[in-house]
Structures are given as C-alpha cells and as structure tokens.
Amino acid sequence: MKYLRYIIIVLSLLCFISCDDAKEPLWNPDWTTPTPEPGDDQDPEPEPEPEPEPEQKPEKARLVWIDAAANFKDYANSESKIASDMARIKETGFTGVVVDVRPTNAGLLFKSDVEAPLTKVDAWLDTGYDWVYRTADFDYLQAFIDAGKDVGLDVFASINTMVAGYNCPYGLGPVGPIYEGEIDEEWATIVNTSDGLVSTMELGTGAKFLNPANDDVVEYLLGILEDLAKYDLTGIILDRCRYDDNDLMSDFSDVSRAKFEEYIGKGVTNWPGDIFAPGVNSISRVSALQRQWMTFRAKVIHDFVEKASNKVHSVNPDIRFGAYVGGWYSTYYMSGVNWASPNFNVKNYYSWADSEYQKYGYADHCDIMIIGAYASTADIYGSGEWSMQGFCRNAKNIFAGDVPFIGGPDIGNSTGFTDGKQGHLMPKIVDACINASTEGMFFFDLIHIKMYDYWDDIKSAIDQYLESL
C-alpha cells in the first residue's frame, strides 16, 4: 500500500505539470493539412482544355469576264437578258463579274462627255462576219450594276485602255473615235517597221493604239476614268494598258524620242537605229541603250497607272483599282509593262533588265490585279510559266505581297479549248487557279461558258472547291 501511495502521488504531479504546459503544444495542427472526411466539400479537378475548332478558310472570289464585243449581240439592246444571265452567273457559284465597257474598237458603254457611246462592233454571226448595232438608249453599265445588286454579285468594269479604234478585216472597214475625228491621228503610235517609221494608222487591219508617252493621250484617258469612277462599282480594271501589238517596234514618235533623251540625259544620234534597227522585234545580245529604252517604256506605263489610280481614288476612294495582265512576265517587257512589285529584283532573274527597271513595277499602285493564266488544256498544273497553276504561283512571287490577285484561264481560245468539250477539266482548273492565287480566280469569257454549255460543269467545280474549305 505504501508503494501504491507513492505511485499515485507521482502520477498526480505529472498530470499537473502537463496541464500547465498546454499553452505551448509540442505539435501544431496547422503544420499539416488534415485529411478530408468523405463527403466534405472539395475543389473539383480542372477540366482539360478543349481542342480548338479547325479554322475555316475564307472563300475566295470567283469572277467571270464579259467581253463587250463577244457578248454584244446578247446584251447591247436587252436589259432583261443582262438580268437573266446575271442571275444564272450567281446560281453557278460566281461572286462577281468583270464587264468590258470600252472594247478594242473604243467607244463607251457608260455615260461620259469625253468619248462617244459605242454603237456597233464587228462580230462573227450565223450569217457571217458583220456589224452588231446598239440602238437601245439604256445605260449598259448601270444595267449590270443593278442586276448585280439584285442577285448579290460584285461588278468590276474594265476598259481597253490604250486603244482608239479598229480597222476590221474582210472589207468591213474602220470603226472608232480615231477614225471619226474624235481623237487626233497624231496621237497614234509610230512603228519602227522594216520600211521605216510608219504610223499604226497606215498598217492595215487590227487595233489602233495610242502613244502612252503623249501627255494629251494621258489626259484624255484620265477623263474617261474619272467619269467611270462615278459609278457604284466594286472596281475598275485596266485592260491593254500597254504599248501596241508591234511590241519592241513601238513607239518611236518624236514625242517618245524627246522624252527618252530627257530620261537618259543625252541625245540619240541615230534614231531609232541606235536602239533597234528597222523591223527588229526581238533581242539577243542586249545593249545598254536597249536596256534603258525598255526601262523608259516601263516608266511611261508605270507613270500612267499611278496617275490613273490617283484619279479613280480621287473620285471614289472605295473603288478597287487594278489591271489585267498576261501572266507571261518573262516576255511582258515587249509590251512595255513591268507589272511587278517595285520590291521584285527583276535584274536578278532577267538579263534584259537594268538596275532601274525594278523601280517601275506598278503593283503597289493597285488594289487588285487579274492575271491571264492562259495555258492549254494539257498544262493545268505546273510550277513555271505556261501552266495555269504556274502562272499564278509566279505572280505571287513577282507581286511580293504588294497586291492581292486573281488568276484564271481563257476557256475558248487557248490550245485545247477551241472546240469545247472540256467540262470535265473544270474541277482541276478551279483547284489549280484558285488555290495558287491570293484572292480567287476568273474565267475568260462568259461567251465560251454559254457557247459550250459549261454552266453545270463550272458549278460542280465551284461546289467542290467550297466543300474543301
């Protein structure tokens, strides 16, 4: 019992000491996270990030060109025919049209005080080669604009720029303002023929071009563009904004001589032989003076395009201004045109260019360009010139991002197309052109779609393209 009493006393003392130190526990429950009991509220596990939806590619434009002369029989005197065909164009999957309102004959299909209205064009009819007359007085261009708005189509207007008339073959004779006294014959180009310097007016049949270096010509054409820009258009496209079909033999007028000598800072002793001998229309070993001449011609066209762009935008800054050019850039210098970006170093690619040629690329003055990818039915895909896809791919490099562009085929005149029966190729054509161009594609020309009944073929091709987006 004695020992038991001692044990009880010791235990009591220990218990007293323990209670006194409870203010400073040896273990703090905040030092660890308690394990939650089942059913306690807990933050949920984060949900995995959803996979992003694949971004749909934007639709690109699909345009069809409507040549004035080729379609004149249908539209010259019929607003209802314009409206019905515009509806069918929309149903086929096109997003817009390019309406030619100044053909190679010259004469206008819109209102202007600068040049007379177009009243007739030459055309092949069922009865033979003859005139097609316009007797109606409705506004031809406005009819297309109204019909476009009704069905939701963009409307671009194009003009054949440097032309002034046409001397028709087979005895039909001349037509156009330069033959009718509206335009001075002195404005026509002077050609360096094998027989000497001759006005284009003396060279038989064909289109008659104006000299783009002539200041009077420039002002005349700017006046036409000023009136055209007053219309409610999506855009204005310059066609044949170049030297004439005589290529390197044009223009050797006194006006061009004076401006060229000013450009190079000295006189040319033997004109034009120091540049090109009479009748020469090709180059092999290129002289320094020849390179300067080709650069001068590119500058002339560049300066006109710059003025034309400024004129159009001064009337309507929202109109898209641009030009149609053939995609064969490697030989387009023969027409006096550098349609490239001024950032494209031409001399690095082509021996005919001097270091100054690059400066006169005019793409940066345009809002849109249209590229003729006029290859044969056998050359739809490819990487170089003379395939549809290749023309468009090359243009992308040449434009250097300065301007969006649309490329497309001639489905009536290019090799393999002349007899029709090529509807099965339309899906490949759409695929090659629309995907190699930055803004879309076009078909030249509506008359061929109608002539060969390509409507359903093109609709199917466009539908396949849209399904691929």
Give an account of the 3D structure.
By secondary structure, the chain is an alpha/beta fold. 32% of the residues lie in helices and 17% in strands. The strands form four sheets. It has an eight-stranded parallel barrel with strand order 1-2-5-11-12-13-14-15, surrounded by four helices. The chain has a three-stranded antiparallel sheet with strand order 7-6-10, with no helix packed on it. The longest helix has 28 residues, at 288-315. Mean pLDDT is 92; it is low at 1-36.
The largest β sheet comes out as:
8 strands, parallel, barrel
* Low-confidence sequence ranges: 1-36
**Which term fits the overall shape?**
globular
The strand count comes to 15
What structural class do the secondary elements suggest?
alpha/beta
Radius of gyration from the alpha-carbon trace, in angstroms: 36 Å
Tally of helical segments: 12
State the end-to-end distance: 101 Å
Identify the strand order in the major beta sheet: 1-2-5-11-12-13-14-15
What share of residues is helical? 25-40%
Mean pLDDT rating: 92
- Content of β-strand: 15-25%
Order of helices and strands: HEHHEEEHEEEEEEHEHHEHEHEHEHH
How do the helices and strands line up, and which of them pair or pack?
Layout: H1 2-20, E1 61-66, H2 72-75, H3 79-92, E2 96-102, E3 120-125, E4 128-133, H4 140-151, E5 154-160, E6 163-168, E7 173-175, E8 190-193, E9 196-199, E10 206-209, H5 215-228, E11 235-239, H6 254-264, H7 288-315, E12 320-326, H8 329-332, E13 368-372, H9 388-399, E14 405-408, H10 426-436, E15 440-443, H11 446-451, H12 455-467
